[in-house]
Write a structure and sequence with these properties.
The complex is a heterodimer of chains A (802) and B (342).
Chain A: H1 31-37, H2 41-50, H3 53-75, E1 96-99, E2 102-114, E3 121-144, E4 148-157, H4 178-214, H5 216-231, H6 234-243, H7 251-283, H8 285-293, H9 297-333, H10 345-350, H11 355-360, H12 368-389, H13 430-437, H14 453-456, E5 471-482, E6 485-497, E7 502-506, H15 513-521, E8 528-538, E9 545-547, H16 556-561, E10 566-569, H17 573-576, H18 583-595, H19 599-612, H20 618-621, H21 631-643, E11 649-653, H22 661-678, E12 681-686, H23 689-695, E13 698-703, E14 706-712, H24 713-718, H25 723-731, E15 782-784, E16 786-791
Parallel strand pairs in A: 7-12, 7-13, 10-11, 11-12
Antiparallel strand pairs in A: 1-2, 2-3, 3-4, 5-6, 5-8, 8-9, 13-14, 14-16, 15-16
Chain B: E1 10-23, E2 28-43, E3 48-52, H1 59-66, E4 74-80, E5 86-88, H2 98-101, E6 104-107, H3 121-131, H4 137-150, H5 167-179, E7 185-189, H6 197-214, E8 217-222, H7 225-231, E9 234-239, E10 242-248, H8 249-254, H9 259-267, H10 307-311, E11 317-320, E12 323-325, H11 330-333
The chains are: A alpha+beta (802), B alpha/beta (342).
Chain lengths: 802, 342
């Protein structure tokens, strides 16, 4: 299931005793949630699919098309083979719906004669000869569903000889009715798609499954066969195979043979999908868990693996059907597939093959319309199914976006999108875009110059020695307007960042710390936006301020600031570097764009930078790719990239979370050293209170999008004022703790983003909540003791607002 | 072998696991990664042994070998289950592994990928019972309810799917599943590292409580030394496939004897700004297990390395009672532990 899916309610209250005495929250609060909690994957899939309007509409269209398949005879009014030279190439008729003011659909009778010059038959309608149309009119005899003898048709004429007077879409060269033939053709073309897919499905699932599960030589052989089959150009392959079909075969035999030919190529795609799913699922921990539980291999396959990819297979199949239909149509159009007297879309279109017929009788092209409509509908339907089938897909009914979860070692199962992908976006993906497309060109007269000595990391204008902060964030609110509701990711964050100092923004997953960083850089992804608040960045020259919250994210100024004045370091350096450019190249390009340096200078500076961040043999490493570097070196390279334009502020979002402790210590030491050297302001975003204690001068504690406490680091750790801060500090494991002691855990868990508690956000988990106050009123961030200590809690302030 | 009261639940002797490195079109074996390179330890009944180390040190591979989720290359894994008979897990033919699974279970790191999203809690927690043919349908239902209560979840939740639960709750479900067959050994592979800080403490407490109540034995795999301190009786520190130090928890933290342990302890960020600056930052990177350095694998990073360390690999030897260390200079160094908080 979705890894970022959040509980619908609360975490069970901390268990002081594992015995049944624990009091529990009910995670489901309403009937809807109760329904969602017990919904099967298929129900969830259907609910998700239902929300995809285009897909639902397309499904209706596909449904209609298959209704035609079932009811072709009933919908046709003329026998598809009834030819008559006297009626050849009749243009489509117009139905006249009213006769003398009354609803009475009718068509005019036609009289045809041959043009003596062109030898074409020319038809003239006779307005006096009105032929009334009848619904459920009698006509040629047929067997409905191949079983029930019938002779009624949806449309017809009173005398039951519709083929002589009704030509809705005209006739072909042999005088056969195009509408009626189209009905029959739909049946053939749509069923050949289904049959072909069914056959490919069997082949694909079987061979793909074997390939994925058995592995080894079998896998290699099957994969090579797939590759060979896929490398043969399809049209010549079909042509060859179709040409090999004996001429004397019956229509049915040819039909079956064509099905086989088409699916011969079609199965390869499905086999790959199945194999891929098998391989990725085998790595899922629940499969290991099942094995450890003692499940047999058969049970693992039948009970765990197959259900997990069934929905994907259905989606893939739906996307394969249109390909089959197109194949049949093209083959038959070329005269290699079905041949008359069989009727299919391709066969019908074959008549429109030459220019002459296009010019004289364009209506013969009408069968192309259902081909296009059905193919598009199938594709939309398949897209909708695929999205709905993905259990990691976001935007379902029950889940809400959430900021990336901190995890000490990143856990990401194959195929799973980044946490919080849909709404909040993976912060990790941003820097690439940033560097590639938005790298601003630094204007002349940069505030500081790059010269000798390690690329001259020396700021010329360091006027802001004063206490004035370089960056002030005031009451920032960034909301995500998701389909299901509004997520208040950041809901009132205020803090200051001073030159040469480090501000730590601390909180658990979903507290909005990463979104705060994204907001400062104006890279919040849709559907999120800054609703209110100020982000004031002090200008270098005149000491004035720019409010970043008011700037256009795409503007020249913002692009200059982003990556230029404010550098960025992300948690996962791997995904922050482009895999197709060397690390050095990315730094060089950034410097060329931002600073307007020429390539050799930029390269020399990049090497200096890499050396500065402690990368050994930078002359060689500069040409390596991110995947060739270890995690620690990658993070160093990331820091070099962030520093390459001499930023005044460095925002580091969980910079060491994915690293081992000894590497973490190295990176933290590096950041400290660089800060002392460059007098940068650092904004360190982390969930690790140990890192905060080591690194920060000031700390802002965030809870559910709000800063609840702010102050100097020593005060935060040694006299925390907010109950959340206190509880958080108590609950973290420490190497100084006595061996095997229990931790005072915070009760409950973070509430669902759509169900924020009223009043103080922390009151449901707070041991010191004042009844009648905390659940009714919202506390504000106010100072306690000294001006630099602020806390938002009624234990320290009276209620000021009703 | 019978009469198990004094004998350890699990003994691991010289465990090795090599993963071949294959290259080229013919997938020829060009070398191997020695993920686990001669690991020996034992776990007594009812105790918690933690395996600690950085990524790639072989701690997870060791754990998975013990569970026979992977087959070790060499070594013996002697397990004395409920019937007291010693079994060599490493040498068991695959088809005889299944009965053993009832005795050893695992708690996974990732509470998301370790639960099948298509199954209800009843099916997830009840599966070990079902496939091992334990009890009737009704008995299994009752057992699942009991297990859910045990881990602090309401039994009424059993018809729900994992998607309705938060990370912490899912981890509880995973623990309930591991306990279903009343195993004697539970291997917990980084069970709290994917959880939020405030939930982490809940799960750690739960694990400790369950151990006391059910008399479980834990093999706790973790990289976070502070977490380890809260749960372990003894700690084994691994580096590049080997145990470099093994000691009772308090002793290891206060008086480490291996320079790597000292460095690890120093590297843990302490949640107290007044303890800043007491840091020993280890240079360089973890050695490549496909190509470990000669001599002591730690010597390129070791601030105390001497000539002997470059050529001769140290053996894991007794340093004090119950304290093993693999370092030539262990006796002469006098390394610093974490000390008491100020």
């Amino acid at each position: 299931m979705d890894r970022s899916a959040h509980s619908l309610g609360g975490e069970a209250i901390a268990t002081s005793s594992p015995a049944g005495t624990v009091e529990l929250d009910d995670p489901a609060h309403s009937e809807v949630e109760e329904r969602v909690s017990v919904a099967t994957q298929w129900q969830l899939m259907w609910w998700r699919f239902r929300r995809h309007r285009l897909a639902v509409t397309s499904t209706a269209v596909v449904g209609l098309a298959y209704a035609v398949v079932l009811l072709a005879e009933f919908l046709a009014y003329a026998s598809p083979t009834a030819s008559e030279a006297q009626r050849s190439l009749l243009p489509p008729q117009t139905i006249r719906w009213f006769n003398e003011g009354r609803f009475a659909p009718h068509v005019y009778g036609l009289s045809g004669r041959r043009d003596p010059q062109t030898f074409r038959r020319v038809y003239t309608p006779d307005p006096d000869k009105k032929i009334p149309l009848r619904f459920f009119a009698p006509g040629f005899e047929y067997h409905l569903f191949g079983l029930i003898p019938a002779s009624r048709h949806l449309l017809g004429v009173a005398d039951g000889r519709a083929e002589e007077s009704l030509f809705l879409l005209g006739t072909d060269e042999q005088g056969r009715d195009v509408w009626s033939r189209l009905m029959y053709a739909t049946r053939t073309s749509l069923t050949i798609g289904l049959a072909g897919v069914a056959l490919s499905l069997v082949l694909g699932v079987l061979l793909g499954g074997i390939s994925g599960y058995v592995g080894g030589v079998t896998d290699t052989v099957i994969q090579r066969v797939v590759e060979i089959l896929r490398s043969i150009p399809t049209i010549p392959l079909w042509m060859g195979l179709a040409a090999a079909l004996p001429q004397h075969w019956s229509v049915l035999q040819v039909y079956l043979a064509i099905t086989v030919i088409i699916s011969l190529v079609g199965w390869t795609e499905l086999a790959r999908v199945v194999r891929g799913r098998f391989l990725s699922l085998r790595e899922e921990e629940f499969v290991t868990a099942a094995e450890l539980a003692g499940c047999s291999r058969t049970r693992i396959i039948v009970s765990h693996l197959v259900p997990s990819f069934l929905s994907h297979i259905i989606a893939a199949t739906t996307l394969a059907i249109p390909a089959m239909i197109i194949s049949e149509t093209s083959l038959s159009f070329l005269g290699l597939g079905l041949r008359p007297p069989a009727i299919s879309w391709g066969v019908l279109l074959q008549q429109a093959q030459n220019i002459q017929s296009l010019a004289i009788s364009p209506w013969l092209l009408i069968p192309a319309v259902p081909v296009i409509v059905v193919i598009i509908a199938f594709n939309f339907m398949g897209d909708g199914l695929r999205d709905a089938a993905d259990p990691y897909h976001m935007g379902g009914l029950e889940r809400a976006p959430q900021a990336p979860q901190p995890s000490d070692t990143p856990v990401q199962s194959p195929g799973a999108p980044l946490v919080g992908d849909a709404a909040m976006g993976g912060l990790e993906r941003a820097p690439q875009a940033l560097r590639r497309s938005e790298t601003p060109r630094r204007s002349q007269g940069t505030p500081w110059s790059h010269d000798a000595d390690m690329g001259g990391f020396e700021r010329a204008a360091r006027t802001d020695q004063s206490a004035a902060p370089v960056l002030s964030v005031r009451d920032l609110r960034t909301y995500f307007f998701a389909e299901d509701g509004v997520v208040k990711a950041v809901d009132g964050a205020s803090f200051d960042v001073h030159a040469g100092r480090t501000l730590g923004i601390v909180g658990e997953s979903g507290c909005g710390k990463s979104v705060t960083a994204r907001s400062i850089l104006r890279i919040v992804e849709r559907p999120g936006r800054i609703v209110s608040g100020e982000i004031r960045l002090r200008r270098v020259g005149d000491g004035g301020e720019d409010d970043l919250a008011r700037l256009d994210p795409q503007s020249h100024d913002m692009r200059r600031i982003r990556g230029g004045e404010i550098g960025l370091v992300f948690q996962e350096p791997m995904s922050s570097f482009s895999p197709v450019h060397s690390v050095g190249n990315q730094i060089v390009e950034t410097m060329r764009l931002h600073l307007g340096l020429d390539r050799p200078t930029a390269r020399a500076r990049a090497i200096d930078l890499l050396r500065l961040v402690g990368i050994p043999r930078p002359e060689r490493r500069i040409d390596e790719y991110a995947f060739q570097l270890s995690g620690g070196l990658r993070q160093r390279a990331m820091i070099a990239t962030a520093l390459c334009c001499g930023p005044r502020i460095l925002i580091a979002d969980e910079p060491t979370t994915a690293l081992d402790v000894t590497t973490q210590a190295q990176i933290l030491a590096l950041l400290r050293e660089l800060q002392a050297r460059e007098r940068m302001a650092i904004v360190l975003i982390t969930h690790n209170l140990g890192v905060v204690a080591e690194m920060c001068d000031e700390v802002a504690i965030m809870y559910l999008g709000r800063v609840v406490e702010r102050g100097p680091v020593d005060a935060i750790f040694h006299s925390p004022q907010h109950p959340y801060t206190r509880a958080l500090l108590r609950s973290i494991p420490s190497v100084h703790a006595r061996v095997r002691t229990k931790l005072p855990a915070i009760t409950g868990s973070l509430p669902h983003p759509y169900r924020r508690p009223g009043g103080c956000l922390f009151h449901p988990r707070c041991g010191e909540a004042i009844r009648g106050v905390c659940e009714r009123h919202e506390p504000e961030l106010q100072s306690v003791a000294t001006a630099d200590r602020t806390v938002s809690c009624f234990l320290h302030h009276p209620v000021t607002k009703p | 072998m019978t009469g198990t009261t004094g004998a350890p639940l699990l003994e691991v002797h010289d465990l090795r696991k090599e993963f071949p490195i294959r290259q080229g079109l013919l997938r020829r074996r060009v070398g191997e990664v020695r993920a686990v390179d001669g690991v020996s330890f034992h776990i007594d009944r009812g105790e918690t042994l933690s395996l600690v180390g950085e990524s790639g040190c072989g701690k997870t591979t060791t754990a998975r070998c013990i569970l026979r989720a992977i087959t070790p290359t060499a070594g013996r894994i002697i397990f004395r289950g409920g019937d007291g008979v010693a079994v060599d897990v490493a040498a068991l033919p695959y088809k005889h592994v299944r009965p053993l699974r009832r005795e050893m279970q695992m708690v996974f790191q990732d509470p998301y990928s370790s639960l099948n999203p298509r199954k209800t809690l009843l099916e997830i927690v009840g599966e070990p019972l079902l496939v091992n043919r334990v009890g009737t349908r009704t008995q299994r239902l009752e057992r699942v309810a009991e297990l859910l209560r045990l881990v602090g979840l309401r039994p009424e939740y059993m018809r729900r799917f994992p998607h309705a639960f938060s990370g912490g709750q899912r981890q509880r479900i995973g623990i309930a599943r591991a306990l279903a067959l009343s195993p004697s050994l539970v291997v917990a592979d980084e069970p709290v590292s994917a959880l939020d800080v405030s939930v982490q403490a809940q799960i750690l407490n739960l694990l400790v409580d369950l151990q006391a109540e059910l008399g479980l034995t834990y093999l706790f795999v973790a990289h976070d030394l502070s977490v380890v301190k809260h749960v372990s009786d003894r700690v084994a520190v691994m580096y590049v496939g080997r145990i470099v130090e093994l000691a009772p928890t308090e002793r290891l933290f206060m008086q480490p004897a291996h320079p790597y342990t000292e460095a690890l302890l120093a590297a843990v960020p302490k949640p107290d700004p007044r303890l800043r600056g007491r840091r020993l930052v280890l240079e360089g990177e973890v050695a490549d297990p496909a190509n470990p350095p000669a001599g002591c694998a730690f010597h390129p990073r070791c601030p105390y390395a001497v000539e002997r360390c470059r050529s001769e690999a140290p053996r894991l030897e007794a340093f004090a009672a119950g304290h093993l260390v693999s370092c030539h200079r262990a006796r002469e160094l006098g390394l610093r532990g974490i000390g008491r908080p100020s």
